[in-house]
Design a protein that fits this description.
- With 425 residues, the protein is an alpha/beta fold.
- The chain folds into 3 domains: 206 residues, 3-Layer(aba) Sandwich (Rossmann fold); 73 residues, no CATH class; 99 residues, Orthogonal Bundle (Arc Repressor Mutant, subunit A), CATH 1.10.10.
- The protein is built from 16 helices and 9 strands.
- β3 and β4 form a beta hairpin.
- It starts with 41 loop residues before the first helix and ends in a 9-residue tail after the last helix.
- The structure holds adenosine-5'-triphosphate and magnesium ion.
């Protein structure tokens, strides 16, 4: 089957902050930028492969795939690869942005547009939609004639048309979906799939995406056939492959330990490590040893600091810095991940100690959204989604807000009548 492939936009990829090195360095760390070697994620890939097989073999599609995780873990590049894979198999890949489905009307328009743009339009037939399309304007004798607006095809109908050809619909940053647009998208997909449309929806977003989807369409969640897939850090073997494969280098045991210590298997840090190692190693870059990692460390740490600066600025701008600080201090004092009660207590302390369930809830939600609080599974304790960011937050607040912190601690102590919160670790 050779149908025209459509690709409306490649969300996020063009926005990459790419630093192109004059030395031909293949590592280009940045939001959505393609790594020179895509490492790990085998399980997610297997699931996606079986989704594609269903579309291809006419099986019943498995339903939406939901990917969620803290920033910098590779949601966008994974989606990009998925689109490439689908297109390589002759399927359509349609990227849509949350603003394309901002409202039910916008969603209808976007899907109709996508049908028009490529997939599944029967020869000689197209349709117009919305706005001032249609017939009207001034008549020949100057009299006004009636303007008729053609109706936009229903989202479900467009989805059915799209699904005449196997089509993967990818929506990155899905946590930004509006309630109404998102709910309609999920319903339209489900209903079209139920009628045999060959569509595979893939959504990706921040750690709180599952909650956002739950709020959007309560029943969607219960009917979701696949568990949402958390995207966390890479394991050791994938991490070292991400760094070493593009150079076709081997990695000594000690160098591997050091790379893991510095990057914690966090994909963005692995890319800046790869870039720094490439710069530090003279060709032919056959082996990465401890000396090479030591030479790369300065450049790596500088880039890492710049990243931390952005993340701390995000927390500060969103009014989450003090909550993050107290959470980080508690975690440091206990030396392990935190349970819900400890998180609640920390955010309350950050706001002066008085009880306010709504405020505390909003703070915890904010921290989860930012990936500052992260866990793969309900059974696990909360940890920081961005490695060692917690330590930076402690340092930054201690430096920048020293008097305010001292006053807050005093107030909290007076109000709660308790002893000092756990000391800095
Ligand atoms: N599996 C992987 N192997 C190697 N590098 C990866 C992998 N996944 C992501 N990266 C690299 O990590 C960085 C972050 O990836 P990406 O922008 O896709 O993350 P994200 O989760 O979409 O982040 P955000 O939430 O900020 O949009 C990029 O530089 C990318 O090249
Ligand atoms: Mg992304």
């Amino acid at each position: 089957m050779s149908r025209k492939r459509s690709e409306t936009t490649l969300a996020g990829v063009e926005k990459a902050k790419v630093r192109i090195s004059s030395s031909g360095n293949p590592f280009r760390p940045g939001a959505g930028s393609k790594p020179p070697h895509f490492a790990g994620r085998e399980d997610d890939w297997r699931v996606f492969d079986s989704c594609l097989s269903c579309l291809q073999d006419g099986g019943v599609p498995l339903g939406p795939m939901v990917l969620f995780g803290p920033r910098g873990n590779g949601k966008t590049v994974l989606m990009h690869r998925m689109a490439e894979q689908a297109q390589g198999l002759g399927m359509n890949a349609l990227h849509i942005d949350p603003q394309d489905v901002d409202s039910p009307e916008q969603l209808q328009l976007t899907l109709a547009n996508a049908v028009e743009a490529g997939a599944g339009v029967p020869a000689g037939r197209s349709w117009q939609w919305g706005g001032k399309a249609g017939f009207g304007g001034a008549g020949v004798d100057g009299r006004k004639v009636e303007t008729r607006t053609l109706p936009t095809p229903k989202a479900r109908d467009s989805m059915l048309r799209l699904g005449e050809t196997p089509t993967v619909i990818l929506l990155d940053e899905a946590h930004r979906l509006s309630q109404a647009g998102g709910a309609l998208l999920l319903c339209a997909e489900q209903s079209a799939r139920g009628e045999g449309a060959k569509v595979q929806l893939v959504l990706a977003g921040t750690p709180d995406l599952p909650d956002a989807l739950r709020r959007m369409e309560a029943t969607f969640w219960d009917r979701l056939e696949q568990r949402p897939r958390p995207l966390g850090r890479l394991d050791r073997s994938a991490s070292l492959a991400a760094v070493a494969k593009p150079m076709e280098a081997s990695v000594t045991l000690a160098a591997g330990d050091e790379i893991m210590r510095l990057t914690s298997g966090y994909p963005y840090f692995l890319q800046i490590m790869g870039r720094s190692l490439w710069d530090a190693l003279p060709p032919p870059r056959a082996e990465i040893d401890s000396a090479a990692v030591a030479r790369a460390a300065d450049e790596f740490l500088e880039a890492k600091d710049a990243y931390y600066f952005d993340r701390v600025a995000d927390l500060e701008a969103k009014g989450l810095l003090m909550a993050a600080y107290e959470v980080a201090r508690t975690a440091r004092a206990t030396g392990e991940g935190l349970r819900n009660a400890a998180v609640q207590e920390a955010v309350r302390r950050s706001a002066g100690g008085a009880a306010d369930a709504d405020r505390d809830h909003a703070l915890v939600r904010g921290l989860r959204h930012e990936g500052f609080l992260w866990r793969d599974k309900l059974q696990q304790p909360w940890t920081c989604g961005i490695p060692t960011l917690a330590g930076c937050v402690i340092e930054y607040v201690n430096r920048e807000y020293a008097p305010a912190v001292a006053a807050a601690k005093k107030t909290a102590k007076r109000q709660a009548g308790t002893s000092e919160p756990p000391p800095f670790g």
